[in-house]
Design brief:
- There is one protein chain.
- It contains ten helices and nine strands.
- The protein has 272 residues and is of the alpha/beta class.
- α1 (14-25) links the parallel β1 and β2 (32-38).
- 37% of the residues are buried.
Length: 272
């Protein structure tokens, strides 16, 4: 059994798939399996996969990204699994090596594997006519009530603890948040590493349809976390501002992100 399963969902993103593949190929340790779930691409992605070695893949119609991610879950056989979708990449070539050492050290000290391993992320965005990068520190897992603790591309899940947990395909955007909230409610153990796991492009459907993202996350807090109306409302309004800045004023967002996110969490936690 491989230590890691890397799951990639792809649809007509050949250049992104190549980028993800290179990032995976560059890893200094090879204790992983790579699974690609393709949604019947017509841009050459299938032909590329046909010529790849050491990849398990399917290309078939699916019901959207979360349905495709569930297919990846079902095919996974590694001890830990991580989603690195087409266009995403590891932050550097030693990520899997460093994470495997951290897991081994944790197991030696505690006699068991951590259920969740996660770290920081790097967001790549376009602003002021050039490509820029925003370093995003991961939050403590106990702050899951506020929002995602990090990008889902920077989270490793212990497969044996997932059981029948799958992504809610009725969610348009926030199924990844619901997934980790439900996983957290299992009473999990976690290991936070102090370095970046992934580099991701800022954009996509969550930015285009950001009001839906904020609304769905608010619904999840009510349904699964049982937060008070006042606390949910404060988070909802704050996140609307943050996501608006993220989408409409990315340069300003990058300057204010660290201060805003940490300050707002402390204010909400202190006031309520």
């Amino acid at each position: 059994m491989s230590l890691f399963t890397i799951i990639t969902v792809n649809l007509n993103n050949l250049s992104g798939l190549r980028k993800t593949k290179k990032s995976i190929d560059d890893q200094t340790v090879k204790t992983f399996e790579w699974i690609v779930i393709d949604g019947l691409s017509t841009d050459g992605s299938v032909e590329m996969l046909q010529n790849c070695q050491d990849v398990s893949w399917i290309s078939e119609k699916d019901g959207g990204i979360y349905d495709a991610m569930n297919k990846g879950l079902h095919k996974s056989s590694g001890t830990y699994l991580i989603f690195l979708n087409s266009g995403d990449c590891f932050a550097n070539s030693t990520v899997l090596e460093m994470v495997s050492k951290k897991i081994g050290h944790y197991e030696k000290l505690r006699g068991k594997l951590p259920d969740l391993v996660y770290g920081d992320s790097i967001e790549n965005y376009y602003g002021d006519g050039e490509s820029k990068f925003l370093y995003k520190k991961a939050r403590n897992v106990d702050l899951i009530w506020y929002s995602m603790i990090t990008r889902h591309q920077s989270i490793f899940f212990l497969g044996s603890r997932l059981n029948d947990l799958t992504y809610n395909t009725d969610r348009l955007i926030a199924a990844d948040y619901e997934f980790i909230v439900r996983f957290y409610q299992k009473g999990i153990t976690s290991l936070k590493v102090e370095y970046p796991i992934s580099e991701c492009l800022l954009g996509g459907i969550s930015c285009v349809q950001w009001p839906i993202l904020v609304r769905e996350e608010n619904e999840i807090r009510k349904e699964f976390l049982n937060l008070s109306f006042l606390k949910r409302t404060m988070i909802y309004l704050i996140q609307k501002l943050i996501v608006y800045l993220q989408v409409k004023h990315r340069t300003l967002y990058s300057l204010l992100y660290t201060v805003m996110s940490r300050l707002y969490v402390k204010i909400i936690d202190w006031c309520i």
